[in-house]
Design goal:
Blueprint: H1 3-25, H2 28-31, H3 35-53, H4 59-82, H5 84-91, E1 95-99, E2 102-103, H6 105-110, H7 115-124, E3 133-138, E4 144-148, E5 171-175, E6 178-179, H8 181-186, H9 191-200, E7 209-214, E8 220-224
Antiparallel strand pairs: 1-2, 1-3, 3-4, 5-6, 5-7, 7-8
Helix pairs in contact: 1-3, 1-4, 3-4, 4-5
Length: about 240
């Protein structure tokens, strides 16, 4: 068989194998990427690449190795979900590295975390004064969560006893020129109502619309393919402060 055809067949097998394994392992592998998850992902990817390009050996052993690695990853994930204490030792646990504006040096050293790394993350969270920090917690995935002291917390409408309008998520009614009738029915609306909304904006056909959304508060958002925006500024010419 032609080597190119063999490589293509193996690539298809590896692609769909990883797709299935990724679905089985779940989104936690992405949303809470620990060091173990990182190594697991690299190893599975490496095996898949070998399965695709190593034409000197049979594909079967590579696929078995790919399956076993994914299976072990799933088992570990299942164990950490079922047993809290197992998850504590396998994934690690949150660690307080700052308290009341003071850096806990010993805890930071045990976590193999540098002070410079901590300061960089705090700056990325718009914290330049360490005195503002009530607690800084090192999460198992390497990220740092920060709780500011009460006097540095942003003021909310609730703090000021203000009444605000409820928030809502916009639902797509038109996407890429296509009307989504299921979403119209959810709001008990029809095409006639939708076309009336479009005509108010000077649009006669849904095919002119890139995106149109509507929410439960009655807000209608519309974006057409041709926005007629002229004289766009060149971002590279921006001379403001850095």
């Amino acid at each position: 068989m032609n080597e190119g055809l063999v490589a293509m067949t193996r690539a298809i097998i590896a692609f769909f194998s990883i797709l299935i394994f990724a679905r089985v392992l779940g989104k936690q592998q992405i949303s809470q990427l620990t060091f173990f998850d990182y190594v697991l992902g690299i190893t599975i990817g490496s095996i898949a690449a070998t399965l695709t390009t190593d034409l000197s050996s049979s594909a079967w052993p590579h696929w078995v190795g790919l399956f076993i690695w994914a299976l072990l990853g799933y088992i570990i994930e299942w164990i950490t979900i079922k047993w809290r204490y197992a998850g504590k030792y396998l994934d690690g646990q949150p660690t307080i590295v700052m308290m009341n504006g003071k850096i806990l040096e010993d805890t930071l050293k045990k976590a193999k975390y540098r002070v410079s790394d901590l300061l960089e993350i705090l700056r990325n969270k718009d914290i330049f004064d360490l005195n503002q920090v009530a607690f800084a917690i090192l999460e198992p995935n390497g990220q740092i969560s920060v709780l500011k002291k009460a006097e540095y917390q942003p003021v909310t409408p609730k703090d000021m006893n203000l009444t605000v309008s409820p928030v809502s998520i916009g639902i797509e009614l038109i996407y890429d020129g296509m009307i989504i009738e299921e979403n119209l029915k959810e709001f008990k609306r029809d095409k006639k109502w939708l076309m009336a909304q479009l005509k108010k904006q000077g649009i006669n056909n849904a095919s002119e619309v890139l995106l149109a959304t509507y929410d439960s508060t009655g807000k209608f958002y519309l974006d057409t393919y041709k926005d007629h925006i002229k004289n766009l500024p060149d971002v590279g010419d921006y001379k403001g402060p850095y």
